[in-house]
User: Fold this.
Amino acid sequence: MKKIILIGSEGVLGRFYQEKLSSKNNFLVSADIKISKKKNSKNSFKFKLNLEKENEIEKFFKNIKKKFGSFDILINNAALTTEGIKKISNKKVNKENYDTFIWDKTININLRGSFLSCKYFLKYHHNKKNIQKIINIGSIYGSNSPHHDIYNNESFFSSLAYTTSKSGLIGMTKWLAIKYAKEKTYCNMISPAGVKNNQNKKWQKKYLELIPIGKMAEPNNIFGALEYLLSNNSNYMTGQNLHIDGGFSSW
Assistant:
């Protein structure tokens, strides 16, 4: 039985991962700031967690160690996009205006939050005797710039802060991979393309012109890569960034 920590369980991909991982022979602890009511089962537990508060993150990793013992796998899936920013900002946000609120909030959650999760996972759960894994969920926009023109006249966009945060995850993944390779802790990353999520048809048409396969990603497409990294079949892999992007990064 694998013991898995999933950070960021309430978004489109997070909910899918939660369902799939809790239905298998795993022991799963999920955390997200959006969790209000804990719906726990025998092998699946949920906790509310604010990734902008280091003391909360340390307490979370310390407490689950005390309650459930050491965990094998950390999945950093939490992410703040500009769609998310619009829900928490009083400002009209539909284009890049180099707003420091957006920058700080995005970096704090997407990059700093993942860093702190790695920090306290390693502090409280690291075990050199057993194979452990850290899996960071990035984006194609971490290694490739968005095509800005497809966001013209749209109510959303891909921010500079988002790309910067996901680029930072690539460096962090590689650094940790080399640091802990000989201690049996393997660190890899998945960078998905756009996941289908009620985007308007006009934008989808523009976006799909950039995707050689010609369709949006479905959650199960991304989960297939995650399932591989969770399995023993990936035990000779570390420091890699898997692009699950329909060919976007191959242009």
About this structure: The mean pLDDT is 94. The CA atoms of residues 57 and 117 lie 7 Å apart. The helical segments are 12-22, 54-68, 82-88, 100-125, 140-143, 160-180, 201-208, 219-230. The chain has eight helices and seven strands.
